[in-house]
Amino acid sequence: MQSVEVEIFGRRFRLRSDNPTRTEKIAADLSHQLTELYETYENLDFARLLLLACFQREESLQKTLEENNTLKSELNRVNQMIEKMMTL
């Protein structure tokens, strides 16, 4: 693990990471998201902006997981069709 310092929404944080480059990218993406949220919700403090960002990311993750499961099901169905065709 390496120590990496990142800036999120104007605040500096020291984190430990196996992949500092990825950690820096995530921090930059999160900072950008918080800036966009702040432009819409100027009255929210940092903690509430973070909570809103977490909810948005969790919603996106859940949608992606659902899509992934759908694609896995479709892939399994196609693979079964191919297997049946090969046994003919």
Would you give an account of this structure?
With 88 residues, this protein is α+β, with helices and mostly antiparallel strands. The chain has one domain (2-86). It is built from 2 helices and 2 strands, in the order ββαα. It has helices at residues 20-40, 46-86; strands spanning 2-8, 11-17. The protein has a two-stranded antiparallel sheet. Strand 1 (2-8) and strand 2 form a beta hairpin. The chain is elongated and about 65 Å long. The mean pLDDT is 96.
Question: What keywords describe this structure?
Answer:
about 90 residues; alpha+beta; two-stranded antiparallel ribbon; about 70% helix
> In total, how many beta strands?
2
How can the largest sheet be summarized? 2 strands, antiparallel
* Spatial strand arrangement across the major sheet: 1-2
Q: What's the N-to-C terminus distance?
A: 54 Å
Helix/strand order: EEHH
Backbone structural class? alpha+beta
Q: In which range does the helix fraction lie?
A: over 70%
Strand content: 15-25%
Backbone CA Rg: 20 Å
Q: Uncertain segments of ≥5 residues (pLDDT<50)?
A: none
Number of DSSP helices? 2
Overall tally of structural domains: 1
Average of per-residue pLDDT values: 96
The geometry reads as elongated
